[in-house]
Every structure is written in C-alpha cells, then in structure tokens.
Amino acid sequence: MKVYFVEDWLDGLYLGVQIESVVYTTRTKFQELAIFDTVEFGRMLTLDNVIQVTEVDEYIYHECIAHVPLLTHPDPKRVLLIGGGDGGTLREITRHQNIESITMVDIDEGVIEASKKYLPGFNQGFYDPRLNLVIQDGSVFVSETEERFDVIIIDSTDPEGPGEVLFTTEFYQSLRRLLTPSGIMCAQTESPLVMTQTVKDIYHRIADVFPITKIFNVPMACYPGGWWCFTCGSLGPDPEKPLREPEESWNLKFYSPEVHEKVFILGPKLKRDLGIRE
Ligand code: SAM
To answer: Which residue's CA is the nearest one to ligand 1's atom 1?
Structure first.
C-alpha cells in the first residue's frame, strides 16, 4: 500500500509525497511537527502540515539564503538569524570563518530539539561556539534588542501562524534599525508563481523601508509552485554583486558566483506582476 503525505498548496492544487516511514511526530508548544522518510525527497520535516525542508532540495534554499547576503556584505562579523529551526541555514552561515558571532532566534525549541536529533545532515551549526541561541518570538527580539548586526537572515515559516509577525512593516523597520551602516537583510518570501500577490505585498513593504530592495528566485521542488523567492533589503551593498567567493572546501552544491548573479534575473511578466521598482 502506498501512503502519501498531502500538502494543500492552494484550493485545487496539492502535493503528494510518498512516505516510507514516520520518523517522529509531536505537538510542540506552537506547531504540529512531523519528520518522515520519503521515497523521493529523503528525510522531510513538516510543521502544521506544511513542508519545511527535504533532504533532496534543501541545499538550494539554504545555500542561497545564507551566501547571497553574506558574500555581498564587505565584512560580516555579527549575524542574526531569525527562524531556521531545522539548522540548514545555520549550517551555511557557520561556513564563514570571518563571522565572529551568530545570534539565532527561533520561537520554537521543539523544532530545534527534533532537528538536532533527527536531521543529522542539517544540525552541525548548533554545536558552533560562535552561536548564541535565543528561544523567543523574533518580532519581540528585534523590537527589544540593543545589539547591532551586519547581516540579518529571516528563515521563517509562511506568513500565517507564528511566522505572520515576521512579514510586517514594523518588523522590517526594526531590522533596518538593527543593521550596521553597510548592513543587509535577506528573507524567504514565498512563491512567485502561485503566491504572486503575497510576494508583491512583501516586496513593497520591504522597499518602503530599505533604500535598496532586490528579489532573487530559485527552483524548489517541495514548495508551492516549485519556484521560490527571497527578498534582500540593503543599506549599501548591491545584493546582486558578490564581493567575495565561497571557499572550495565548503563543497557547495548550488551556489556559485555565477549562480549568484543569475538568480536575480526575473522574467518580464514577474517584474510587471510584482511592480518591481528599478
Ligand atoms: N525553510 C522553511 C520554509 O521556507 O518553509 C522554513 C524553515 S524553519 C523550520 C522555520 C522556523 O521559523 C521554524 O523553526 C519556526 O519555529 C520559526 N518561526 C516561526 N515563527 C517565528 C517567530 N515569530 N519568531 C521566530 N521564529 C519563528
């Protein structure tokens, strides 16, 4: 018998992922968490029945959300990561030896504990001595902290449930306040194909707050529409122009300087639909 995990992407569109076994399920303080072994996607984490990461395509997302902002900043020393409880983005951030401190703020300790135990390919960053792990709502953290950061990365769930507060104008204003003068932030910002209005709203909220705002896009088989985007808000560096290259020893699978420049190319329809400001 074939058993499928089914995610309702939209009314009339769903994704079915054949399951080999259920590895772990729990109800954390904030979310329904499940980890499966799947036939095509390898190990997969879901929160509230929404796929968060799969072993097969996670590197595309995690390498880009981390290395695009970190390699366009001239010299990032202090980094803030909000969300990212599965550890994939943290793994990529910790590859950068020039970074001195990494503050990670996730609302849900249950996600981190499960990832440490059941996602061995993702979790090495949790053991990095530069990490300061804070269990708190990211929107509260950014409104209260007096710390300053060179790069801020938002690896959140979708804009509903606990992640909703991480997509507001107030939140983006707080991020701007926390950034140092050449600071840059990069956030996951949903599917350009099937959530175009959401992407547009987020883009304009960020563009109203940051002097430079740019969207980049990547293929992601496990997310709605198979196509995902990220939005960078910058106080100085051009997010499209990497200033440094990744180390060969990082053995990256998707990101390269060439890919960096290409992912910022948006087709004419998408530019029009999003009302991109040139
Ligand atoms: N890559 C994934 C995606 O695009 O669906 C996101 C992965 S990561 C598991 C998302 C993390 O955001 C979760 O660990 C969740 O606990 C965290 N999160 C959600 N709302 C949050 C909030 N308000 N503050 C901090 N972390 C939050």
So the answer is: 52
